[in-house]
Amino acid sequence: NRFIRLMAKFDLSRQEIIFCRGENSKIEVDKLKLDKEALSFPDIACLLPYKEINISNLSLPEKFISYSPSTVIYSKFVNNDKTEVFYDFQFKLLSFVNQLGYSLMLIPHVKRDKNATINNCDYLLCEKIYEKIKNSGQVSMYKGELSASLAKSIISKSQIHIGARYHTLVASLSSSTPCVSLSWHHKYLDLFSFYKMKGFVIDYSNENLFESLKLKITEIHNNVEQYVNSLKKNHEEVIKLLAENISLFENLNKDL
Predict the structure, then answer these.
(1) Is 190 strand, coil or helix?
(2) For the chain, where are the E strands, in sequence order?
(3) 251 three-state secondary structure
(4) Beta-carbon count within 10 A of 147 CB
(5) What pLDDT sits at residue 217?
(6) Is the CB of residue 159 less than 8 Å from the CB of residue 63?
(7) DSSP β-bridge partners for residue 69
(8) In terms of Cα–Cα distance, which of 53, 17, 78 is closest to 142?
(9) Coil, strand, or helix at residue 162?
(10) Do the Cβ atoms of 154 and 175 come closer than 8 Å?
């Protein structure tokens, strides 16, 4: 909104260089006409370290597709009187994933301890989805405490990740786990562009959302090794870009 744009303009006008999280973000900054240098770089979270884990130690399925739904998208469905459409999508997704020979695993991105509701807490949303679909196929939910690095470790063990949350997709791409984005913001396209995977970003408002997702999952399923190798290669380029980003930032702050 206008107030946020004014606050952004006030704050960013005081910076020497503006580091943007992708080209679309840079375009939005350029629209503010700040007369400042704006540069596009990947999200620094792509460098988050993670550990190899034994799936049996965490009771993870042997072969699974991980899935991180979003309260943001859920709320958009509810606000458009499409709650049943949202849950119908979950049933269809479970059935399709099972048909391909995978179990579906819900991985919550956000867990709130205070004032948590299904509209702001992904953990509660995952619980609701799980309760709805648990008797309809092979599905599980990770209910333990999740640090960012552990979430990345778990996602890295899945064959494919479906993400409606930005940082679960960062975790997936940067661990060379092929993934599909359910998007509600241009930041998803920015992220996937760095990994040359922007064709796997699907807008949540797509009238053929499930069919579109089905096509993308099938494409990955049939060519998993190809996409894993491509992500590994592109992650090396992301590392180089972030090294440049860090160097520029260090030079700006060397006199502090």
Answers:
(1) helix
(2) 17-20, 37-40, 64-68, 103-106, 139-141, 160-163, 179-183, 201-203
(3) helix
(4) 9
(5) 98
(6) yes
(7) none
(8) 53
(9) strand
(10) no
Helix axis angle, 166-174 to 224-252, nearest 10°? 110
Q: How far apart are CA 172 and CA 190, in angstroms?
A: 15
Number of CB atoms found within 10 A of residue 238's CB: 20
- The Cα-based distances of 137 to 76, 109, 132, 187 in angstroms read 26, 23, 11, 33
Span 91-99, average pLDDT: 98
Whole-angstrom distance, CA of residue 113 vs CA of residue 123 = 10
Residue 112 confidence (pLDDT):
87
Position 32, amino acid: L
Q: Give the gyration radius of the chain's Cα atoms.
A: 19
Q: What pLDDT is stored for residue 212 in this prediction?
A: 98
pTM of the prediction?
Answer: 0.94
**What is the per-residue pLDDT across 36-62, written as a single tens digit (0 to 9) for each?**
999 999 999 999 999 999 888 888 999
Task: Give the C-alpha separation, 56 to 61, whole Å.
Answer: 8
Q: Which amino acid is at 174?
A: S
**How many CB atoms within 10 Å of residue 250?**
9
Q: Tokens in use for 228?
A: 């894993």
> How far separated are the first and last CA of the chain, in Å rounded?
34
3-state class of 92 per DSSP? helix
> In b/e form, how buried is each residue of 120-134, taking b as 16+ CB within 10 angstroms?
ebbbbbbbebbeebe
Transcribe 73-91 into DSSP letters.
Answer: HHHHHHHTT-HHHHHHHHH
CA angle 181, 233, 161 (to 5 degrees): 25
**Looking at residues 70-85, what average pLDDT do you find?**
96
Pair of tokens at residue 190 = 């920015």
